[in-house]
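Incident review: delayed structure delivery

Summary: a single-chain prediction request sat in the queue longer than the usual turnaround. Root cause was a stuck worker, restarted by the on-call engineer. No data loss occurred. The affected request and its eventual output are reproduced below so the record is complete for anyone auditing the incident later.

Affected input:
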Amino acid sequence: MTLHCEVSGSGPDLVLLHGWGADVGIWSELVGELSPRFRLHAVDLPGYGASPTCNPYTLGGIAAALAEEMPRPCLVCGWSLGGQVALEWAGAAPKQVARIALIATTPSFVQRDDWPHAVPAAVLNGFSGELTADCAGAMKRFFSLQALGDEQAKRVATRLRHALFTRGTPDAGVLGQGLKILLETDLRERLAAIAQPALVVHGERDTLVPVAAGEYLSNALPKARLVTLRGAAHAPFVANAGTVCALLEDFLKES
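Output delivered after worker restart:
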């Protein structure tokens, strides 16, 4: 398969991985700021934007598709679901992925008996049921939840929705498969084996992925540090693009 990838800038190769329901358009502000210092590869994950889907549609399948087509070596920045993909890819291809930056990322999106730092599974199951009846409406509601609690909630929600509807919504089937990944993935037992340096960036007001999940992630990864952004929710790079870009540049230039 050939993933759609928008390449710009010059410098070390940096791959940007978007979250569930989004596409490469979500990175426009970061691309503008980081392109003078990095060769950016903004990728549409399988089934999103202009990229074909993959088979099997699993976290491992997505990571394998990226490993086949992205530069060697490379730096990787993932947001939300894209952060889980980055973790999977880093674990599977340690000689390819040099460093990982994880924005609003969690080892498990849903609550489990021993994992309270997440949303109830019923929340994601509810979106799954809505996708067939009203895909666009379900996506609007999801992006509103991502902005919930942010000091700039209105601007963030508007920005997220604009990114969604300017390039078209993904197929409901692909979105459903992505939700299945979010429901089933639990990476906690695998984190200790991911030895690459990692930067964990988390919004203190994130209601989808509570900051406690970011704290857990930074403690469980062998070479990670956490930066918590005040007043930000699930999309801190939208509300605080300049701050996030500065954090990424400082961390990634150490490679």
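Verification: Residues 153-167 form the longest helix (15 residues).
Action items: add queue-age alerting; document worker restart procedure.
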